[in-house]
Amino acid sequence: METNLICISCPKGCHLKVSLAGENIQEVKGNRCPRGKEYAESEIKDPRRVLTTTVLVKGGRLPVIPVKSQTGLPKGLIIAAMKILRETAVSSPVRRGDIVVENILGTGINIIAARDVASAGTQSKY
Amino acid sequence: MNMMSYDVVVIGGGPAGMAAALKSKEYGCTVALLERDADLGGILNQCIHPGFGVEYFKEELAGPEYAGRFTDLVNSAGIDVYIQTMVTAVNPERSVMAINQNGVMQISAGAVVLAMGCRERTRGAIMIPGYRPAGVMTAGIAQRYINIENLKPGSKAVIVGSGDIGLIMARRMYLEGIQVLGVYEIMPYVNGLIRNVKQCLEDFAIPLYLSETVIDIQGKGRLSGVVTARVDENFRPVSGTEKHIECDLLLLSVGLIPENDLSVRVGVELNTATQGPLVNNGLETNVPGIFACGNVLHVHDVVDNVTREALKAGEQAARYAKKTGVKPKEPRKILAGENIRYTVPNYYHPGAGEKVDICFRVSRPISDGYLVVSSPERVILEGKPRGFRPGEMEKFSLSPKLQGKDCSDVILSVRRRSNGN
Ligand SMILES: Cc1cc2nc3c(=O)[nH]c(=O)nc-3n(C[C@H](O)[C@H](O)[C@H](O)COP(=O)(O)OP(=O)(O)OC[C@H]3O[C@@H](n4cnc5c(N)ncnc54)[C@H](O)[C@@H]3O)c2cc1C
Ligand code: SF4
Questions:
Q1: Per the CB < 8 Å rule, is A115 touching B148?
Q2: Number of domains observed in the structure of chain A
Q3: Is the domain of A35 the same as that of A11?
Q4: In this predicted model, what pLDDT tens digit does every residue of B72-89 receive, in sequence order?
Q5: What is the predicted pLDDT for the residue at A123?
Q6: In a domain, A9, yes or no
Q7: Chain A to chain B, count of Cβ pairs less than 8 Å apart?
């Protein structure tokens, strides 16, 4: 069987032609780099997406802070993860890379802060 | 008035401005970086989605992470950063006027780098008839509301235009529990990156309507609905195809325009195809010592390319300020030929023995085309056959060998291999 995928690993967006025997990939064509093949493997067996959203910051210079999953979460868990993050709040100051939720939904993947947020009233560094 | 003087003054503290400032500093210049916002990072601070830095950092970063890494570098490099500082004018002798809480400052600069980014086209620019209710805004404004200010702009959304910001906002709103009724694109093809169609629309079953657009906006105080219709080849609505859609939010994702008000006032000439400055291969505008990079020069979809371009502008500005550049010969033209919407740069200086990096975009999708580089007399090079899309910026390097001895003007074209599309 053959199936078409679009590699989303970089902005080039290669059109992949994947030949399958059952769940096993026999050949990938159309990828302009080796990551296309890795993407096809994962997209067929265990599709994953990096989740980014915002969570509330208490006492921060900004009301929310952007966060992201350190690596791709199983696609089927994105909505459940959003639900947890909607109810999550952190206290300022927060530094980029700080863990916001450890091991979300038992995936072994952490949700981390994607920027610094200083406490309200403090001057930014410059 | 505060009088100051720097070798290089960079206007705008987004990824372009930060990279340019860092590079000029590396060349031993004194550098001032001027940013009107309270933070460095520019548009990246509101682009919380992943997909930045795949080339430059070999990692998939969120926009604020990419900005944060550069901000840390800028803060430790000894660059004088002025935030909440708005540049109001530049004059041809390269004195830069700016204003902040401490008052007005006049900075004389050895070289100036323009890095002011771009702004979004607004509704006026595409002229949808109807009322002017609340709930109609650009996709970037909605992005700022949701991602930075924690405000919910509506609960039932329609998106007009398939630019990347619109696609990314479709997913973002979906995840925040806002119903996204569809993306309407007047062209027969998608404007944004194909990966964003996949991961932002298809992943969440958000419908995409090509060759359709919004023809009426309804509601007096608050948006209550829109009317959509199919369009014919001449982009005129086809009667009988109208559909009424109830919604309280209409996002416009109909393109970006380089922010060149300052540039034009100092006499910088713009390319009508990009609305960005015409530049040579050192990214210098027609006004000597004034350079441009990033979205103010032409709209980029990938920040890594912005950084690369800006490092070059920073280097060239430093050389100009330190007067270490070679005196260039009469420039040659780089022209957009068949199926090419624009090129950057527009000129190159022959005989420098350097390769000339050229970016270009095609004017329409071509599935089976090939690049042709020619001079007025001969074909210099023909590329391999492949697909080209207007949404993707293409790159080509004109090596000294290809420039040839005569170094004539060069014309870039993309020809179709077959008669089909
Ligand atoms: C919504 C959106 C999504 C994107 N998604 C991706 C993606 O997934 N992956 C990717 O690689 N790229 C993406 N890009 C592209 C990339 O982020 C941009 O091309 C890049 O950030 C542009 O950088 P810049 O420095 O030129 O402009 P900006 O980031 O716009 O910075 C310009 C700065 O100049 C300042 N300024 C302007 N005028 C003045 C003045 N008069 N005085 C002082 N300061 C001034 C502004 O405040 C601003 O901070 C996206 C872009 C947008 C808009
Ligand atoms: S195959 Fe490689 S080059 Fe093509 S989209 Fe995927 S990561 Fe990018």
A1: no
A2: 2
A3: yes
A4: 999 999 999 999 999 999
A5: 60
A6: yes
A7: 86
Amino acid at B2: N
Q: How far is A102 from chain B (nearest CA, A)?
A: 19
Look at residue B421 and tell me whether its pLDDT is greater than 70. no
> Rounded to an integer, what distance in angstroms lies between the CA atom of residue B245 and that of residue B228?
8
In this structure, what DSSP letter does residue B400 have?
A: H
Q: How far is A66 from chain B (nearest CA, A)?
A: 6
Confidence tier at B391 by pLDDT (50, 70, 90): confident
Spatial separation of the C-alpha atoms in residues B284 and B298, rounded to whole Å: 14
CATH code, domain carrying A107: 3.10.530.10
Q: Is A15 in the pocket of ligand 2 (CB under 6 A)?
A: no
State whether the beta carbon of A31 lies less than 6 angstroms from ligand 2: yes
What number is the ipTM of this complex? Answer: 0.93
Within a domain: A28: yes
CB contact (8 A) between residue A13 and residue B194: yes
Cβ atoms of residues B360 and B342 within 8 Å: yes
Q: How confident is residue B14, by pLDDT bands cut at 50, 70 and 90?
A: very high
Mark yes or no for CB contact B50/A53 under 8 Å.
no
Binding site membership of A35 for ligand 2 (Cβ less than 6 Å): yes
The domain in which residue A10 lies consists of 2-45
**In this complex, is the C-beta atom of A6 within 8 Å of any C-beta atom belonging to chain B?**
yes
Report which DSSP code applies to B197. Answer: I
d(CA A10, CA B50): 10
> Do B68 and A64 count as a contact with CB atoms less than 8 A apart?
no
On whether both A56 and A103 belong to a single domain, the answer is: yes
Whether residue A69 is found in the same domain as residue A107: yes
User: A30 and A10 in one domain?
Assistant: yes
| pLDDT for position A96 | 97
Q: Which of chain A's residues have a Cβ under 8 Å away from the Cβ of B48?
A: 52-54, 66, 68, 114
Residue A124 inside a domain? The answer is no
B73 chain-A contacts, CB cut-off 8 A: none
Judge if A59 and A38 occupy the same domain: no
| Spatial distance between the Cα atoms of B292 and B263, rounded to a whole number of angstroms | 9
Residue B157: predicted pLDDT:
98
**Same domain (yes/no): A88, A107:** yes
Same domain, A107 and A62: yes
Smallest CA-to-CA distance from B363 within B418, B295, B411, B415 is with: B415
Let me know whether A7 and A56 are in one domain: no
Structure tokens at B283: 């990214």
Show the CA angle centred on residue B6, arms to residues B314 and A124, nearest 5°: 80
Select, from the ranges A8-12, A48-52, B349-353, the one with the highest average predicted confidence (pLDDT).
A48-52
**What is the CA(A32)–ligand 2 centre distance, in A?**
5
Contact yes or no for A54 and B55 at CB 8 A? no
* A80 domain-assigned: yes
DSSP secondary structure code for residue B202 in this structure:
G
B301 Cβ below 6 A of ligand 1:
yes
Which of B82, B146, B301 lies at the smallest CB-CB distance from A11? B301
